[in-house]
């Protein structure tokens, strides 16, 4: 499991120091608690992301934000790498773009994504990223795992065939809702998100039915019941607001 870069209230704000660095040849600056991704975005340099979402801790799970750092082009995830003085970062070299394509192709090949019949078709972050990177097929054999759908909850459902293991659901449920209904079970190819101790969602004793997990899920893995193909649109704007309110309490 990759260590989380937690974003709690910072009691040492006064001790932050300014760092200068180059991103894609541009001179930029930030403070020492900022990540490459944050500084890049402040300077309108786009880096694709999947597991990162504003308002939750950064996890570094998906790796699509990989950038090259330093003269030897070390590959590091921009969302969990803090800036350093004199750092040189490249975000769009042919090598980086090829790695991002491969990562997205692997995500498609390891589960069962049938966009044409998906509730999130047309509103899916994975699908959009594939389109942005020009991924229209995968060079890897499909795994076709036998995965289930848990529709036991009266309002929401999870289709593991479309899960990319970004763990946004786990983090929002823990960090924002405080229920910690979602977690991760097993390792490697067998990894799954689970509710409670792998009980069915509808039998969970901790789920508050807030629906935040559905809204932050980047794909059609979590969805509201009753949605037909392409009808599931997610709203994530509540997250930065709730995070700010929590920190001010
Ligand atoms: S979750 Fe996204 S990529 Fe997967 S089937 Fe649905 S629309 Fe396609
Ligand atoms: S269910 Fe959705 S939010 Fe949760 S890990 Fe899977 S893709 Fe991410
Ligand atoms: S966005 Fe950085 S690892 Fe997922």
Draw up the topology in text:
Layout: E1 18-23, E2 26-31, H1 36-42, E3 66-69, E4 74-77, E5 88-90, H2 94-110, H3 125-133, E6 149-150, E7 156-159, H4 168-176, E8 182-185, E9 192-195, H5 212-216, E10 222-224, H6 238-248
Parallel strand pairs: 1-5
Antiparallel strand pairs: 1-2, 3-4, 3-5, 6-7, 7-10, 8-9
Summary of the model, kept short:
By secondary structure, this protein is an alpha+beta fold. Helices cover 23% and strands 16% of the residues.
- Morphology: globular
What does the average pLDDT come to? Answer: 94
Distance between the amino and carboxyl termini:
30 Å
The biggest sheet amounts to:
5 strands, mixed
Main β-sheet, spatial strand arrangement: 2-1-5-3-4
| Range of strand content | 15-25%
Describe the protein's architecture and organization:
- The protein has two domains: 19-92, Ubiquitin-like (UB roll); 118-248, Alpha-Beta Plaits, CATH 3.30.70.20.
- Helices cover 23% and strands 16% of the residues.
- The chain has helices at 36-42, 94-110, 125-133, 168-176, 212-216, 238-248, and strands spanning 18-23, 26-31, 66-69, 74-77, 88-90, 149-150, 156-159, 182-185, 192-195, 222-224.
- The chain has 249 residues and is α+β, with helices and mostly antiparallel strands.
- The chain is built from six helices and ten strands.
- Residues 49-52, 60-65, 77, 79 line the site of FE2/S2 (inorganic) cluster (FES).
């Amino acid at each position: 499991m990759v260590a989380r870069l937690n974003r709690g209230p910072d009691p040492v704000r006064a001790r932050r120091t300014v760092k200068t660095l180059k991103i894609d040849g541009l001179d930029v600056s930030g403070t020492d608690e900022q990540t490459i991704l944050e500084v890049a975005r402040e300077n309108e340099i786009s880096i694709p992301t999947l597991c990162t979402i504003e308002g939750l801790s950064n996890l570094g799970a998906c790796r699509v934000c990989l950038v090259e750092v330093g003269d030897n082009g070390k590959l590091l995830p921009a969302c969990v790498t803090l800036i350093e003085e004199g750092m040189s970062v490249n975000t769009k070299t042919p090598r980086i773009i090829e790695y991002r394509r491969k990562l997205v192709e692997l995500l498609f090949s390891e589960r069962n994504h049938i966009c044409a019949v998906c509730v999130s078709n047309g509103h899916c972050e994975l699908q959009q990223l594939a389109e942005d990177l020009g991924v229209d097929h995968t060079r890897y054999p499909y795994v076709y795992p036998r995965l289930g759908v848990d529709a036991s909850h009266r309002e929401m459902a999870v289709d593991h065939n479309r899960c990319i293991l970004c763990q946004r659901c786990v983090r929002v449920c823990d960090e924002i809702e405080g229920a910690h209904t979602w977690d991760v079970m097993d390792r490697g190819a067998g990894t799954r998100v689970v509710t409670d101790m792998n009980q069915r969602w509808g039998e969970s004793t901790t789920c508050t039915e807030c629906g935040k997990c559905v809204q932050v899920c980047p794909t059609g893995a979590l969805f509201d019941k009753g949605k037909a193909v392409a009808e599931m649109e997610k709203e994530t704007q509540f997250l930065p607001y709730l995070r700010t309110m929590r920190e001010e309490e």
